[in-house]
Each structure stands twice: as C-alpha cells, then as structure tokens.
What does this fold into?
Amino acid sequence: MMELKFSLNGKKVSTIIEADSLLIDVVRDLGCLSVKRGCETSNCGLCTVFVNDKPVLSCSVLAARVEGQNVTTLEGLQEEAAEFGAFLADQGAEQCGFCNPGFMMNAIAMFRENPHPEEEEILSYLAGNLCRCSGYEGQLRSIQTYLAFKDSQKGGV
Amino acid sequence: MLQINRYVKVSSLEEAYELNQKKNNVIIGGMHWLKMMDRMVGTAIDLSGLGLDEIIETEDSFEIGCMVTLRQLEQHEGLNKYTAGAVADAVKDIVGVQFRNTATVGGSIFGRYGFSDVLTVFLALDTTVVCHKAGEVSLQEYVKLPQDRDILVKLIVKKVPMAVAYQAQRHARTDFPILTCAVSYWNGTWHAAVGARPGRAELVVDENKLVSGETATAEEAKAFGKAVAKQLIYNSNMRGSAEYRQQITPVLVKRAMLAAGKGR
Ligand SMILES: Cc1cc2nc3c(=O)[nH]c(=O)nc-3n(C[C@H](O)[C@H](O)[C@H](O)COP(=O)(O)OP(=O)(O)OC[C@H]3O[C@@H](n4cnc5c(N)ncnc54)[C@H](O)[C@@H]3O)c2cc1C
Ligand code: FES
Ligand code: FES
It folds into this structure.
C-alpha cells in the first residue's frame, strides 16, 4: 500500500494504491467511469487517457508512475467532447457506443497535435482505437466534417 | 496476471542494477510486454527518474536512452532525416499512437523479439548497445546473447554516411508483422536485416558484391534479395508459412533497396 498524489482533470487528488495498481482502475475508482477496459493486450484503445497531455493506454500504466503528473479523462474534456460528439452523432458513426470515450480522447489528442491532418494521417493516428460495430467510415466522415467546421469558424484555413 | 509486490523508482543505475540481480525483481519499460505475462514480481524497478528518456544528437551519433518511447523515435527530426524516415516507417504501424507513447526502446531491444520492427531497423544501422556492467557491444552481438540481468542503458547510432529504407509485410496495420526488412548501404556494402521469419532479425551483408554500388539496379537488388532469402532460416506460424516468408523476402529487399537513399 502506498499513497499516490496526482492531478486528475485539473483537481489535486490523493489516494491509496497497491504497487501493481493500474491507472485505469485508479481513475475509475475516483469516479471517471468513461475509462473502460476492452482487452487484455494493449490493443483496443478504449482505456485512453492523457498523462501530461499525451494519450496513453491506462490499462498498461502503473498508477505509481503518475505521482505528481497531470492525468486527464473524458470527464475533464466535456466541452471539446460535446462539440466533436455532435459530429459523430450526426454521421450516425456509432452503434453500441462502447468504443466512444477512448475514440474521442484520441481524436482530441490528434486535433491538438495536428489541426489539419490528411486522411492518411487520421487513419494512422486512430489505428489503435478498435470499434467492433462500425467500419470506421462514419468516424472518418465525422472527423472531416468537424475539422471543416472548425476551419470555417476561424474564417477559412 | 502480472503481480507486483513493491515499486521502486530508482535514483541511480547502480541501485537499479543491484535490485535487478534478484531473480524475482524486474525492470519495467513501457510494461506492455510484461503485462501480458503471468508472473509474480518482487520489486518493479522503474528507471524513469534517470533522464534516460532523451535522444541526444551529437556531431557523429545519436544516443537513444532506454526509456525513449517508440513515438519519440517516430517523431525525432534528426534521426528521421538521417535515416530518410526509415525509423519512423519501422515503428508507425506498431499498435497505435497511445501504445507508442509508452512502449520503450529499452524493452524492445532487451526483449529481442522475433517480430520486432524496432530491432530490425536498428540492426541495419551502425548501432551499439551500452549496458551498465557489460559496457558497449555491437547490436549484432547483443541480439545473439541470452537475456541477462544487466541494464540496457542506451543505444548509440553512429552517423556514418548511409542510404537506408524500411519495409514490412502485415495482414493489417497494427497487427504483428509477417516479415520485417531494413536495408542499408554504408562502408561500400549493402546490408539487409530481415526479421519476423518468425525468428529474430538477422543481418546479411553483401560480401560477394552482387551489387556494384550505392545505386542498385533492379536486377542487382533482386539478386541480393534472393541471396538473403537463401541464407536465412524461415519457419511457419499463424501469420504465414515459411515458404511465403522466403518468397516475399527478395521482394521486400528489392523494394527497400530501390527506395533507399532517395530521401523525402
Ligand atoms: C499487443 C502488442 C503488439 C505488439 N506489436 C508489435 C509490432 O507489431 N512490432 C514490434 O516491433 N513490436 C511490437 N510489440 C512489442 C513492443 O513494441 C515492445 O517492444 C514491447 O512491448 C517491449 O517494450 P516495453 O517498453 O513495453 O517493455 P516491457 O514490457 O516493460 O519490458 C520488456 C522486457 O524488457 C526488460 N527491460 C525493459 N527495459 C529494460 C532495460 N532498460 N534494461 C534491461 N531490461 C529491460 C523488462 O524487464 C522485460 O523483460 C507489441 C507488443 C504488444 C504488447
Ligand atoms: S484496455 Fe484495451 S488497450 Fe487498454
Ligand atoms: S460502436 Fe460498438 S464498438 Fe464502436
């Protein structure tokens, strides 16, 4: 047992963990239920959170390693999530929606890192987010229409 | 499941080395591979406080700390300029961005995985491995050594003038590769590293000078590719048969050779 202090969605938190506690379980215990586990092999991307603004797989990060770091989950990104989420819904991109939080997190990471991605760059950036229902086409369209909307808001590229 | 009793973020390499001498203690890199094992660990040794997460470019080399992530390799301007993007090409299809943000160079090379894109590309470069106790050894030698209890501190890639390119065959992006291949021309000779056969990558050097110089013709590239395929041992697994792997080796070698040195 050890004490862990870090910042979760901008708030300082302190909790007790085991040496092998994984970040996914710790943030879920702290109420961030958007973070989900979809595999045992670091493959699905469902558990994506940001550590110091970088998207990582929280299922494979020892909680002890985020001591003093900034962790962000979808709960802390409500505005960006709502805005982009509307475009996902418009395209009817999803069916069961289970993959949504991890997908949104990584899409937001991409928008921040590369505001004007080519189609190939989008596919490559999001390749680690699996969806078992869709064919990814709707997600791709929603990203492209969202990016076009953001550009038009700024008055063109 | 991976179970860990104690977590220690070490403050020196010596401390890490001492801890690592105990059989049930383990160094954690990105922990992706470790996490898939059924294992009871005494102490998990974390090197992340030692500043080993940097790529340092000097006049004649790149020093790549063991905690550098695959994503850092992919995005490092100097390294990808030197290799004409071959390093980025090698890692870009490994799982996903989130995975590559934590998977480490140290874990990838220490693991000496047969399927490793990372190992393959560094084998084709002039790479040495620096270990805490054993010191500096060439990557070619290091690959053949069994996993020991030393610490892989960093890789050193010398900036010899070089043409290099990377190719791999996959059923689908993010899956393990069926075959990996990196070719390079330096010191007046062509080199080809081929992995995922499915055995770990091996380097073949064009000792018989099937290729006359840096600008290989399609015919020469094909001839060297065939020689490489003949010299290596292939096996079958769920991703492909030995015959298939051997068949596509000359194709990947040739494609890479014709692309090498073209820059971007
Ligand atoms: C689902 C999945 C898919 C993958 N697909 C690919 C692929 O397509 N291509 C590819 O090339 N690779 C692939 N890999 C391998 C991956 O790229 C890494 O090489 C692997 O995960 C090891 O890196 P790590 O940082 O996770 O190491 P860890 O899992 O933390 O460690 C691996 C081993 O190395 C030891 N170790 C770590 N650092 C050091 C050090 N500094 N000194 C001494 N020992 C050390 C550990 O003790 C452990 O034994 C895949 C891995 C997974 C889990
Ligand atoms: S739960 Fe699947 S990648 Fe983390
Ligand atoms: S909508 Fe069901 S997994 Fe993506």
About this structure: The first strand of chain A starts at residue 2 and ends at 8. The pocket of FE2/S2 (inorganic) cluster (ligand 3) is lined by residues A 94-99, 131-134 (CB under 6 Å).
